[in-house]
Write the structure tokens for this entry.
Amino acid sequence: MIPKEIIKKVKKIEIRTRALVEDVFGGEYHSIFKGQGIDFAEVREYFPGDDVRNIDWNVTARTGVPHVKKFQEERELTVMFLIDASTSGEFGTFEKFKREYAAEICALLAFSAIKNNDKVGLIIFTEDIEKYIPPKKGKKHVMRVITEILSFVPEKKGTDIKVGLDFLNRVMKRKAICFLVSDFFSQDYEHPLKIAAKKNDLIALRIIDRHEVQLPNLGAIIHFEDAETGEELYIDTSDSSFIDEYQEHSEMELSSMETLFKKCNIDFIQFLTDKSYIKPIMLFFKKRGKRIRR
């Protein structure tokens, strides 16, 4: 039985994200995620301006009137969400936990996908593969995916992105659009990342709380506990040199990630949970659109 508060959250997310899809994102999604190829549709009479390379000479000879072949994009795509459900996703110092923020982004992308008649699937991982929902079409299926992201209770606490990518590489037989959603507090996943990026259109979405990368100066010693490992730390937040070092380390981590994703030809978007996700997604769509049109 799904708790009532989860059902309410899912309905709110549906209302908010479906409106965005109708007003803004549906067309953008269609323009940047192309089908797998071109299918023959029909033959029609030639009109001035048609590409002469598409003339169907057999039909033209038979009818005595020039005809051209008409093609259409093979549109149907598969969208896979690869979701990190480790305990760090339950962290949040602003309006939403990272897991809730991730669910809204996935809902926006999932509703954009079904508006374009694409399939949507889900892989939830921690240190192990915890849940797999094969790709399907339709609103009911997308609602199930969103509900799982919000309500799923994992058996393990840690993060192993390699495990998630290895599973993706095994189960996906055809090219898919894959959104890898994590805070990327994980190591040694470069090899399966490269394989996944070659086989699919892979986009990395990093969901992070600002206070995970930028410690606030609270003027006191604060007790911290790592949600995944249980490690306990006491940090003097009035120590400005330590805060500066911590932020510098976070910036180096981010730079290292960006370098890795660029090397693997993977689009990367970082989201801070105290900011709207709309602007980063719109910027991503615009940049990708420009790249495609070149």
Observations:
- The chain has a mean pLDDT of 86.
- The chain has two domains: 4-32+76-293, 37-74.
- Residues 37-74 form one domain.
- The first strand starts at residue 37 and ends at 45.
